Each structure stands twice: as structure tokens, then as C-alpha cells.
Amino acid sequence: MMFNKHGGLNILNGRTDVKLLKKSLPPFYLEMVEAWVKVNGSLTSEEAICHKSLWCNTEVKIGGKSLFVKELSELGLNNVIDLYKEDGTLYDWLTFKTVKNLTDRQVMLWNGLLTAVPKDWLKLPRDFVRSVNRKELYIELNKNQRNLSEVVSKEVYLSLVTQKSQSSTGLQHLCNVYNVEREEYMEAYRRTFVTTIESKLRAFQLKLLHNILFTNSRLYKMKIVETDRCTLCKTELETVPHLLYECTHTQDLWNRVTNTWFRKVGIHSLSEKDIMFGLTTGNDEKFLNHIILAAKFYIYKCRVIEAKVVFTEFRIFLRHTEMIESKIAEAKGKLIKHNQKWNLLEVD
Predict the structure, then answer these.
(1) Domain residue spans in the chain?
(2) Buried b / exposed e across 227-249, counting CB within 10 Å, b at 16+?
(3) Element (H or E) spanning 127, and its range?
């Protein structure tokens, strides 16, 4: 393995000195270590210190440079815990020489290493050191010490992505406009994938949540369209809230939708926030949120093709969606769940 030349994967447990690895690691592995260093190596607890690497660690330096001594590494000296005896006390030079069968030269190397190690690393409580599992390899992940055998690659990937990712401006904008907390926004994001298996509807809702659904108000500023007025009513400024909720043509559709399906479960009106983020209603949540999502998509589709918003045409579109999902559910052996979701849909 690539890291064996520098003490194994232990070197990832600490503030790894990337410069020391540049000449020996291929570009891919080097980039991986560079990314890892940016999000790890900050723990200072006794447990974290025990598992810190002695090699290629910017915290362990001689003459201003981190080090790697192959001879000592091959003798099993790789982590801070290896400087301690099984009884929890620090090795003295004579005992270490006897146990490891060191030459005088190796003893000098060991003494040099001790002078480079931070002093507080050599003062760990005896009882704590005795309790440390020396046989397992630990790494720092999400500000916790984790047994490497229990860590999966997906966790490491998410750790790196989470540390580097930033909230979209769309998230911040919608949270401010509709006075919702981040968790409520994220729940609406997750709800998208639960509500429908149809890729078109999922993509539409995600564009909406990221505030990248373009209407005439934006397109006019880009000089792509000749007017910023609503495509449906021709009078008001066409923003996303206006198109999907405020427009008189849109309101008529929502009133018909509410009377047809939502009143059956005690919901007599839908707010702009409900339409943007969806509902949490219990047993019929998937179906009702699918209705909301499909209606939004239908309204936007009418805008694109400059067609009238007609309730009867929307019902045809909805039945077509149900038929597609039914075939997929039957193929996957999930027809019972499909029927439970769509049991409120009226069929002529």
C-alpha cells in the first residue's frame, strides 16, 4: 500500500505533513491527503493524542521539519501510544532498548524522537493509557476518534464534502422570504424524493427550492424575453410566487384542486408556503404533496407553451402520472404501496 512507506494509514491521524509526501505519493493519493488534512487533525483530547501519528506529522519536528524514521516504524513505533508500556508508564531508554532489541544508533534515533514530541503527549494519565486499545487502528473523523475497521468510504466522503460545502443562496433566500428554519427547508428537500419517482417532477421541485426556476421577471433582465409581465394574466410582474400562487389563473386551479382532493382530509385552503414546500399531513402526505408538485409543474408547463391553465387537462396529466407510477410499482412488486398512495385520486 502507498502509505506503508511512511508508517501506514497511521499518518492520517494527525496534522499530516503533505510536503514530506510529495516525492513519494502519486498525484491522486497526494490530493486525497491534502483534502483530508483540511478537515482533520484538530483534536486535542487524551484519546486523540494516544492515536496521533509520530511520522509525517507537523506537530512532531526536528529542526523545523517533520520526520519519518523507517527503522523505528518497522519496530512498531508509529503512534504516541507506542511510546508507553502496557502498564501505562512511559518507556525509559534502557527498557525500550531491551524490549525492541535496539542498536545504539537506534536508541539515539529514539531519544531524538522524544525531544521532538510535544511534552504534553508524554504526560498522559497512566490509567487512561492502560485502557487504550493498541491493536486497532483509529483515525479522526468528524471530530471523533473512530475505529478504522468500522468506517466506510461514504462516511469519509460525506465528511470531506460537508466541511467544504456551502449553503446555496437559494436556500438562504427562501428561508428568509417564508420565515422557515434550515431544517424545515431540508425536510422539504428530502420530501421531494419521497413524494414522486418521476424525474421531471423531482428536477422541477429542486430548481424551485434552489431558487433557479426562471420566469419573465428574470428573463427580461437578461434580455431573453420582451416583457416581464405574467404569461398567463398579461398584467402583473411574473415572479415565481405570482406564477405559482398569486395569479388569478393559478388561483382558480388551486381552488379546484383543493375542493376535489384536499377537503376530503380536512384541508380547506393552501397557503403560498404550503405550495412552495409541501405539507406534513400524515397518511395521505405522499399523495397530497404529489398533487401540489404536479400542479406546480403543470402551471409552469402552461407558461412555457403559453397555454391556458385548465383543471380538466391537469386531471388528465395526473392520471397519466399515476399510470406510469403504477407500471413501475408493479414491476418492483410495490403495487400495494402505490395503491395506498393514490387511493384519493378520483377516476371517472
Answers:
(1) 2-164, 169-341
(2) ebbbbbeeebebbbebbbbbbeb
(3) helix 126-131
